[in-house]
Amino acid sequence: ALPIWGSHWDKDGWMPRGAANGEGAALRAPLLAGDEQAGDERAGGEADSSQREQQVWAALLRALVAGWRKILDAVTNVSAVVVKRGGGGFGGKDKGRGGKPLVLGALAAGRLRGLVARSAVMFDGDNPEHRAALARLWTAAFPRDLPSDGGPSERWKDMGWQGKDPATDFRGGGVMGLDNLLGLHQHFPQAFSALLNKSRGTRASIEYPFAVAGVNITFALMSMLGLRDPALVAALAGGNTDNGAAVGASETPAEPGGAVIPAHATSPELHAFAEQLSVHGAHGARAFDSLYAFTFEALDAVWLETKASYMDFGVTLAAATQATKQALGTGDYEAKSRALSFTDIVKG
Predict the structure, then answer these.
(1) pLDDT tier at 152 (50, 70, 90 boundaries)?
(2) What are phi and psi of 102, to 5 degrees?
(3) Is the dihedral angle over the CA atoms 39, 270, 96, 83 positive or is it negative?
(4) Which of 249, 237, 325, 339 is nearest to 288 (CA)?
(5) Would the N or C end of the chain have less CB density within 10 A of its end CB?
């Protein structure tokens, strides 16, 4: 397989092939440390940042409106079926919206506990299990290469890691960033291949790095859902919330193994995502993988539509995350069908 983006490694860090020293220096910083402001600073000589951002948001709407229509069409056919299933014990239609607590049945609570626990695990290069997972990712990305033990190699850069050892790039995404890349390959292999090899559309001369972009998406989604929020962690563990107020008797979970998330530890996105987690079967079990795949597809769609360069990565990721929030948003269609609709749009 040919390298998917041009780069080389100098004594100071990662540099895009042929880039000026000033541009390369900006890219040495971890992408997770950047936000829209940092992206604007990297843009330096670009047009006014606010005008550029407006162009990105406008292009986002054009690029994804067809996908949103597809979601709504799919929901028309499946929402009645999913609602009839009962959704695995979620605490009622729109329960918790508008600042109310989020009541979770055992199925959704168990899945959310698993995600919260996994989000707290940092990648450890000395952990044999973590290196073995990297070895599986190597095989997924480079099926024609000799197997790897997950250790350092210059070849990793061809997948979009900034150095020869991916262990240095996980940072805020933790081991969940690796889980999500593997999940993308397992559950959405066509999307994995297209995003890795940049096989869609007319590509930029210097592309966004696939692997590091994936870690950024993991971190963005964890932040959006508040998976590391101490109040959420405490509520799922059955303890006190971070403001010292214990869950009251009136907010007791409806079934054993369930949980009540206090209002201050919830968000509209978490409420909607909990509906996905409550769906029985594979759709609910891999709800986060579907959310991740959707966001990655949105990132690539915005990247192509706006003809972005690597200096625009921050605002492009923000646009993709906003697209995910919109698709998770309330009031447009029944939340219990979202696990199906996210899968439909990624596979379609």
Answers:
(1) very high
(2) -105, 115
(3) positive
(4) 339
(5) C
